[in-house]
Amino acid sequence: MFQLSKGSLKKILDGTNVTDPILQILQMKNIQNNMDGMTRYKVSLFDGETQHTFGILATQQNHLVESNQLKIGSIIKLEEYAANVLSKDPPKVVIILLNFEILGHMDPNQKQPTNQANESNFNEPSKHLQNNENIEPNKPKQPQQEKAKNFFNKKDAEVEKPSSNNPPGTFNGFKIFGISSLNPYQNKWSIKARVTNKSAIRTYSNARGEGKLFNIELIDNTGEIRANGFNEQCDKFYEMLQIDRVYHISKATLKTANKQYCKLDNDYEMTFNNETQIEPCDEADNLPHMSLNLVKLSDLTNRAANDFVDVIGVVKSVGDVTTIVTKATNRELKKRELSIVDNSGCAVTATLWGKQAEDYDAADGNPVILLKGAKVGDYNGKNLSVASTTVIQINPDIPEAHTVRGWFDQGGCDSEIQDLSNQNTMTSSNSGSANIGGHSNWKFLDQLKDEKLGMGDKADYFSTKAYVLYAKKDNSMYMACPGENCNKKVVDQNDGTYRCEKCSRNYPNFKWRMILNLNLADFADSNWATCFQETAETILDIRTDELGELKSSNSPRFDEIFTECAFKEFNFKLRAKMETYNDERRVKVSAVTVEPIDYVQSGRRMLQKIKQFAENQ
DNA sequence: CCCCCCCC
């Protein structure tokens, strides 16, 4: 039998703190929040005497309903709750069920315990509830945070000192919660968290007026959250909040985070308000530090534009500060490009903007630079952009920094470097590194289908080294308009003239043009690709007009030309694009460039692939 | 309440 805590609901509603009341769930309703689209469970609570129809399950407990552990009739020991007064007149109080133990289950109508076979499960705290220890911020739990690295300067333990006037486990009169348990429906909380990132102050101006803001990222053992400080709060807290320091925070507004902009693993974000309290706090707590997921520069070729990556490398060269005018708003903006290299043998251009471009110390030589959260771009190859949320560290004291420093100093600086940026320019802008000219984004032919290239809205370009298996002779040549920039097909009028519909005129002559279909193959796959004129001439090793002569004269040499190219190997830059022909949609592949293979570069590229492959095993 | 991260 369960003894419900008679009278406890009345006390809770009156604002009295009640310890571990035993309550029963009488009703339960799934409500969809329009603001954040999240499911919430509204429950009716019963204490054996009165019923309160407005209880809400904290969303981190939703799984208990979804796994049918918590249901109508469940008896709970409510270990942690929040009674939020929504209005005084009429009185409206919502009780948020933050943490509880499911003691058992009783049919509300029978008022008797049921004899379900699995009832004993309910008499122990459920497995899930044990996970809710996550609410306590001091227990490292999630593997993702266990790999967090302890690299930024000080160790917590060394700066430990007694807390101010706060009783243990509280701050500003509020119990310390784990970040992952924060939600907009419960405002009596405090957290203890480490700042892992802090933006510069940014000003903005829009229809609502002018303003400024900064944001920080906070982490504890349960999760992470972004916090924003606008205007007065920006003035008040910006200097105090420092990267890698630990703070107590209470009384900030929580709202649904816009996932489009905030990549942190939290449905909510925090905004400081005029009630917000923040105090530095130096106690050792084994709070995770900033975590790094370093990416080798060679791996950037596999990253899409707008990805954010962490990289570490040596600044090989530094560009001057230049000024650009933004397209969108015609603002003048300073920028500076750094070429960064690492021991994967690759270089990439990283762009600093605004004040960061001006403040970068170019006299610093070739320091190690860490970019955490740099944005990947894919203009003429791959590049990186330093965003407002990117953390820059010069010569950080971490093992990876020493590794890349050692590599650079012991000959890496003079080795052949593949520049992933500036791929379509003949002169490498500032890196002084080897430029392999024209090609980036090397793929094997199976990747064409595997990666659904050309299936998107726009064309995909990639480079590949492939053999010509077969060059299709039929329809490979057509009679084209001899007009200067017109290559339209002409119709033989059989009166010695050739009609071009585009030019609307008859010509006394025509010129030959080529559209050559090739079956290309590498070790992985084969695919058809179309070569036009110049690229076809490279493949067949003959000028189109000469080939036309052979065709016109029915020379046996004509056929030979098409068989001689078989099993020749070239570097292709290919374009894949979806096309519709006779209601059939398929990816058409055409050659943008065809070049003989430079086997030294090709070998280097292969070595890189092998190295990359080995490292990823 | 921002959410731009730019240019070739």
TrEMBL record:
Q: Which residues form the OB domain?
A: 189-271
Q: Which InterPro entries match?
A: Euk_RPA1_DBD_C (IPR047192), NA-bd_OB-fold (IPR012340), NA-bd_OB_tRNA (IPR004365), Rep_factor-A_C (IPR013955), Rep_factor-A_N (IPR007199), REPA_OB_2 (IPR031657), Rfa1 (IPR004591)
**Composition bias, Basic and acidic residues:** 136-146
One record GO biological process: DNA recombination
UniProt-listed Gene3D superfamilies: Nucleic acid-binding proteins
Tell me where the transmembrane regions lie. Answer: none
One GO MF term? DNA binding
Annotated Replication protein A OB domain residues = 297-395
Query: Which stretches make up the Replication factor-A protein 1 N-terminal domain?
Result: 4-103
Known NCBIfam families for this protein?
Answer: rpa1 (TIGR00617)
**Subunit:** Component of the heterotrimeric canonical replication protein A complex (RPA).
Q: What family does this belong to?
A: Belongs to the replication factor A protein 1 family.
Which PANTHER family does the UniProt entry name for this protein? Answer: OS03G0429900 PROTEIN
Its recorded name reads Replication protein A subunit
